[in-house]
Amino acid sequence: MKKVVRKSLSMLLAGVVCFGGLTACSPSSKGASGTEAKGQEASKEGQVEITFATSWVGVSSSKEWFHNRLEAFNKEYGSEIKVNVEEIAGDQAYVDKMKVLYSSDALPDVIAAGGYNLIDTMQDKFVDLTPYIDEEWKNSIDEKCWEVNSRDGKIYGAPISKQVIGYFYNKDLFKKAGIEKPASTWEEFFQNCDKLKAAGITPLSMDTADSGWVTSLMLGAIVGQTEEGEKFMNTSLPKDYNQEYFVNAVSDIQKMFNEYTSTDAIGGAYENAAGNFFTEQTAIIANGPWMVGDFYDTDKVEEGFADKIGVAAFPGDVMYDAGKIGFNVAAKTEEKRKAAATFVKFMTNEDSQKANVEITGEIPCLKKEVDSKVYPLVQETIHLANTAKRHINDFQSLWFANVVDEVSVEYPLLAQNKITAEEFAKKLTEAAQKNQ
Amino acid sequence: MPNYQRILLLRTIKIILLAVFTLISIAPLAWILLSSFKTNREIMLSAFSLPSSFDFKGYRVALEVSPILRFYGNSLIIATASTILNLLFVSMTAYVFARFEFKGRALMALMISSSLLIPSSALLMPIYRIMVSIHLFDTIIGLILVHTALGLPTSFFVIRSYFQSIPKELEEAAYIDGCGYMKTFFVIVLPLAKSGLSTVAVLQFLMSWNEFMFALVLTKSEKVRTLPLALNYFTTQFSFNYTALFAALTMVILPSIIIYIILQEQVTQSMVTGAIKG
């Protein structure tokens, strides 16, 4: 009997190996996206080939947009420029691979790290795009978006969208707790959290892993409520976090961890925080409008969930409203640089940005308003950003990469009261000062 | 306490312990399997609830969203080939180290074993550069060679111990009967070391099957990439599909389990031998 089982298993495995071999060797096999097949076509005479590495694959909300725009680009420029796409699934895997390629001087011609700031670590390999940006292109984009992508007057990134973030709240749960409207001060915000808690509702979605995105947005918003805090949250690469307003904000975050969030916040990543909000186990989550599409996805939420959701500016009328790191170019020859600039210009033009907001909810960084069909919550977020008193930038774009990593290490300790707010600030300062 | 009661008590404790260990081993696998049939909402609402229905949507989505079948094929080829090569090279090396005295033997053995202590992240860049310069970047052969080499120190350590446990007299008898060096190794020694080789095969296969970082850095096209990379297609910083992820995980872990079931007896036997002979 035993022998029969083992023989059957061996046969099964052998079958799988053969099947796998056939699948792998099949010449007609095409990538899930079909992109690779396009990229593998032989280049025509006179065509300039450029390489583009993207993480817009799999379940990425930008996947559909990217394929749409790549197809449009190929239609217009296909005879002159051939884009070889390398798919790298996973944002962190993407950044990790770029770091290795940077060290080996083998970066792809075009990079889009989805908001991660690679400029400060890879500036010496990135191309100054200033000579390739004509007046029309320059004038069409919001100045603050160029600023985030510039260093010492040189432009190292072509922006595609703005970072506009407030927080989402569940109107039904607010009503149940007797809350009439979102808080206008942090004091009121914590009172609302107490009301939610009294009604048996966990007030906040929070996280600590992967730089604690949701939590850090709250932290930045608390810091940004004063003038000097706002200035700090718009400072590129800050090195000193031992500021009173920063320490006070960290204390508030510690209080949130201790009293107002779910147990899975410690160690949890964005998906845990989002999952709790989608299943109405928490009432508030800080995040950008790219999340709105999920409010309509009935595989994740209950039918009609989107109607229950409202969006608000952070207390003190603070909104994240800043430029975002865009496409970077690392091509080595002038011919490839020109082709890369053409590609990047196309991917960030008005049509591309319009498609981006419609498909992904990413807010355009154009000076003029685009007429686009977007979800009402996205429209509302744009309105909140336009009317907010204070405008801040997010930590991932501004802080040193090792400080962003340090945040994930320190949050769990802060949440478990193993370190104080002062110690947290000190740790970030130490990490920041390791950079030259 | 009467003897039969003591036996009954011991047997009960044994059964309870076995049941607990079985549960600990099987529960995560069962959880992954069951989760692959749940909707994302069901998973988020309760990680441990049973699925409301058994549909294969997650598997369909997993196949649509990622090139998992192609990666599956690549993984099987790379893991199988690197296991065979690793066994071949390491068994020959380990045999020489286990049986023959020569100058620098201890130093060389130390060098091979100490390479276990080098973190793989430190090897990334040099290996990347080597692969590019010898034109093996983004090739299946390149990955096979790297995986073969990565498993070298562990395999060497296990097999050398095993060879040392085989009585030398058997080989001497073979030589007297007219066996040459190669024949003695392949016909007499290797079959006797079947258990040790099985252990190494399992370890090497699993290492290659699960290896992520080199597979990411040393490849750029789908035609070469392996399964661990496919799992990244289901979660990004702001998007996720748990159902498809669990379906993909189920598909990914299946061969490892099958391999282990086939070779488990040899592995257990080898571990016992290793424990006695050191």
From TrEMBL, chain A:
Position of the signal peptide: 1-24
GO biological process: transmembrane transport
InterPro entries: Bact_solute-bd_prot1, SBP, SBP_1_CS
Source species, domain of life: Bacteria
Keywords from the named record: Cell membrane, Lipoprotein, Membrane, Palmitate, Signal, Transport
Similarity remark: Belongs to the bacterial solute-binding protein 1 family.
Protein name: Raffinose/stachyose/melibiose transport system substrate-binding protein
Automatic annotation (TrEMBL), chain B:
GO terms for cellular component: plasma membrane
Keyword DNA repair applies: no
Domain ABC transmembrane type-1: 72-263
Sequence intervals crossing the membrane: 12-34, 76-97, 109-128, 140-163, 184-207, 242-263
Entry's localization field: Cell membrane
Assigned keywords, A-Z: Cell membrane, Membrane, Transmembrane, Transmembrane helix, Transport
UniProt-recorded name of the protein: Raffinose/stachyose/melibiose transport system permease protein
UniProt xrefs under InterPro entries: MetI-like, MetI-like_sf
Entry-linked PANTHER family: ABC TRANSPORTER PERMEASE PROTEIN MG189-RELATED (PTHR43744:SF12), ABC TRANSPORTER PERMEASE PROTEIN MG189-RELATED-RELATED (PTHR43744)
Species in which this protein is naturally found: Oribacterium sinus
Membrane topology label: Multi-pass membrane protein
Stated family: Belongs to the binding-protein-dependent transport system permease family.
Keyword field contains Nucleotide-binding: no
GO BP annotations, alphabetical order: transmembrane transport
Pfam families reported for this sequence: BPD_transp_1 (PF00528)
Lineage, broadest ranks: Bacteria, Bacillati, Bacillota, Clostridia, Lachnospirales
